[in-house]
Design goal:
With about 170 residues, the chain is of the alpha+beta class. It is built from 8 helices and 7 strands. Strands 1-2-3 form a 3-stranded antiparallel beta sheet, covered by helices on one side. A hairpin with a 6-residue loop joins strand 1 and strand 2. The protein starts with a strand and ends in a 5-residue tail after the last helix.
């Protein structure tokens, strides 16, 4: 029903924006943003039906324009013109640049002495109004001996034999 209505490459490595032109007025606004350098505008593309009939041409026009602009600039320009648009968020963008997630303390850095530092998402809930702080998970096999002896009642001698046979990590 809508055209253009797709994901378009923006300037930068793996940068994309989603654009959904839902009305002819939005198309006119997008044409004004792209300008005459974007391509030949004619009556064939004035209606959604015409744009859908010539969708490859329409998307090529929009793609040429978006490919030369940073996603933030595209989102700003189209939002100001009331054209539905959103940045396609990569993990890198969400972690390093998304102001809303950062402001809400969504990301937590977890450190472990034997592992590299990692960024993790916070639980989607709070306890008594407080964010739940994440801690480093145990390493594989870290608690095996304790579980074997304390919970399963395996003797120290049996644990030692398992280690000798490389049955434990």
């Amino acid at each position: 029903r809508h055209a253009p209505h797709n994901i378009f490459r923006a300037r930068g490595e793996d940068e994309w924006v989603a654009i959904a032109v839902e009305t002819d007025a939005q198309w006119t606004s997008l044409q004004a943003l792209i300008g005459t350098k974007g391509g030949a505008w004619d009556n064939r593309l004035a209606s959604a039906a015409g744009r859908l009939e010539h969708i490859d041409e329409v998307e090529a026009l929009v793609s040429r324009w978006t490919a030369t602009r940073h996603p933030t600039d595209i989102v700003e320009a189209l939002s100001d013109s009331k054209i539905p648009v959103a940045r396609v968020a990569t993990s890198k963008y969400l972690i390093e640049e998304d102001a809303d997630l950062s402001r809400r303390g969504y990301w937590q850095t977890v450190s472990h002495e034997d592992l590299p530092r990692s960024v993790q998402s916070s639980p989607p809930y709070k306890v008594d109004g407080e964010r739940v702080e994440l801690s480093a998970p145990p390493l594989f096999g870290q608690d095996t001996e304790e579980v074997l002896s304390s919970i399963l009642g395996v003797s120290a001698e049996q644990v030692s034999k398992m280690k000798e046979r490389h049955a434990l990590t």
